[in-house]
Amino acid sequence: MPSSSSLERLRDTNRRAVTALLAAEGPMSRADLGRRTGLSRTTVSSLVGELLTAGHVVETDRGRPHKGGSGRPPLLVALATPAGVVAGVDLGHRHVRVALADRAGVVQHEQTAAADVDEHGTDALDRAADAVRGLLAAAGIDRDQLQAVGMCVPAPLDRRSSRIRAGILPGWRDVSPADELRRRLDVPVHADNDANLGALAELTHGAARGCGDVVYVKVSSGLGAGIVLGGRLHRGATGIAGEIGHVQVGEDGQVCRCGNRGCLETMVAAPRLLELLQPAYDEPLSVERVLELAADGDAATARVLSDAGRSIGRALADLANSLNPEAIVVGGSLGTAAPLVTGIRAAVDRYAQPDTAAAVRVVSGELGERAEVLGAVSLAIGRVAAG
């Protein structure tokens, strides 16, 4: 028989699923909440009752009958917009981006600064804390109005230790990012990796709105995926679900930053693609320049990006066969490159089960470089709403 503590953890997880769905989709009926979360009508009714009592949600105007029926329109449940603000912190490999938002997720102030996050973890956290305090001061908001901070880190986080996976970022050894930023700001801080928060942002604000089962793949200086199942992030037993960049594609390949050899990331991440393309051009190449060349129809760029997309799509096809997602959203610095997205689509069509391939859209993300900070804001809102 389940213990009371395990039942409470399950109930807390279910509360978070409901509030996250309301944050992503806006007002919904209890019936739709049940359909989208997979929870029973009784469970949803009980959870909504708790959230109403706590002031985290409100009932609003009646919606349309389900599937256009003629019955009485249901009351909708919506997240309340109480006083206070949240902050989102995006620690990229080479930048610190911070956003201040109200509890409805509307960003009020935002700033970005260059930083060597990989090598200097404590410095990056100091800069993030200073930026949060600076935005609060610029907005004329008292620090006691800051309810929570969501934080994005560019590496997998071990759910057991709250630390970055060993060996991934040299400047973060023995550092728990959320604990360290919490100590600096004296507010609750909730951390997750960049692919997961990119997925959450696209689910809430971008290309995956209205979807329940999504794979978000971030193609940038590394390669990773955020997985959404039943409207909620799937992190796995230890928090490292979605690490498709470390699928082995060649036993004798290059040594990867994870310590293995022949990982997919060593073949298709942005630094490798720039290295492949550079001999064909007299000018120094950057990701921005590669995107310009791709948009102009440059043949060499299109070939390299298309090949990379096919390699990524081969791994995603296997994942799609297992998860049967509605959408694959391509984000990161290369996410808008049409040849890359086309290559992914071609590989999914070739290697996934026909019905699986037919059911999934493959699209570029809509939020670009702001996806992670917006995902961090959504994470903070969801955690505050869940209590």
From TrEMBL:
InterPro entries: ArsR-like_HTH (IPR011991), ATPase_NBD (IPR043129), HTH_MarR-typ (IPR000835), ROK (IPR000600), ROK_cs (IPR049874), WH-like_DNA-bd_sf (IPR036388), WH_DNA-bd_sf (IPR036390)
Listed Pfam families: MarR_2, ROK
Segments forming domain HTH marR-type: 20-61
PROSITE patterns: ROK (PS01125)
UniProt similarity note: Belongs to the ROK (NagC/XylR) family.
UniProt protein name: ROK family transcriptional regulator
Protein species of origin: Nocardioides mangrovi
